[in-house]
Hints:
Elements: H1 4-7, E1 10-19, E2 28-36, E3 40-44, H2 51-58, E4 66-71, E5 74-75, H3 81-88, E6 91-94, H4 106-116, H5 121-134, H6 150-162, E7 168-172, H7 180-195, E8 199-204, H8 207-212, E9 218-223, E10 226-231
Helix pairs in contact: 4-5, 4-6
Amino acid sequence: MLDMSQASRIIVRFESVSLQYGHEPEILRNITFSIAAGSFTFLTGRSGSGKSSLLSLMYLAQRPSRGLVSLFGQNISFIERQALSAIRRRLGVVFQDFRLLDHLSTLDNVAIPLRIAGVREEEVMKHVPELLSWIGLARFLHAKPSTLSCGQKQRMAIARAVISRPDLLLADEPTGSVDSRVARRILHLFIELNKIGTTVIIATHNEHLIKELNISRVHLHLEGGRLLLLDTPKIF
Length: 236
């Protein structure tokens, strides 16, 4: 639930943004929207509509071909590398292809953001197993990714993204490889993270699951690279 101070603080801003790869047709065309700090946003659209490309601009894997993308009040096209690194440390990202490190255990994969941030090892060893237990991976603390199912790897990737309580969480189809029961549990994990201040943006094709959640949310819809729908939450 947003308060007025949160609503006035924009964490993501797109102004007339387009994205094009080489001489191919534009993937995104003239996209404009803003996301307030503390909000919960769903990004929907069919496969190929541009959802993953839109997220890639937010996690700094791409720069816009045209227009302005601003994160935490900074134009990403003109800030220095050191400032980009600082922004990346405030992000948690769940990728569709997971991007796990095959030589590390489940525990060590999930612990990466905490260890990079210099968290004490006793704190790492407390919080990582707790989270893995909550999402049903307690029995796989020392398992390598190659021994796990697709759904288990997805949950591991989600745990890694949320373990450091990022300011902005970006999730690309985070429930795509799990059953409906686990999907609801994952979404409620994101909701709890949102309640303590993390801004959450989830790309998904599962609009039915969205409608089941009784939360205040923003709903962006993409079709053919264009933004067609923008619902904003009530401000209390």
